[in-house]
Amino acid sequence: MSHVTVYTTNSCPYCVMMKNFLEEKNIPFKEVNVEKDPKAMEKVVETTGQMGVPQTEVNGTWIVGFDPKRVMAVINRH
What we know:
Number of helices: 3
CATH topology: Glutaredoxin
CATH architecture: 3-Layer(aba) Sandwich
InterPro entries: GlrX_YruB (IPR011911), Glutaredoxin (IPR002109), Grx-like_ET (IPR051548), Thioredoxin-like_sf (IPR036249)
Domain Glutaredoxin: 4-62
Helix content: 40-55%
GO molecular function, one term: electron transfer activity
Largest sheet: 4 strands, mixed
Pfam families: Glutaredoxin
Protein name: Glutaredoxin-like YruB-family protein
């Protein structure tokens, strides 16, 4: 079972696209809204060096932006 966490903001259209993609594929995920949880954004920036969202962590691998092919590649690896 894959562990997927999507880091989002309220106004990010790509975040919505990522969440919709995961739902369509029946992939369970946890959403962390970094506008509501600024400490989570600090963790993301420290980990990836990137400020943008969405950032998706799949089994410890970070994917920046809306990249469904990469998400599926990482999920299928595990």
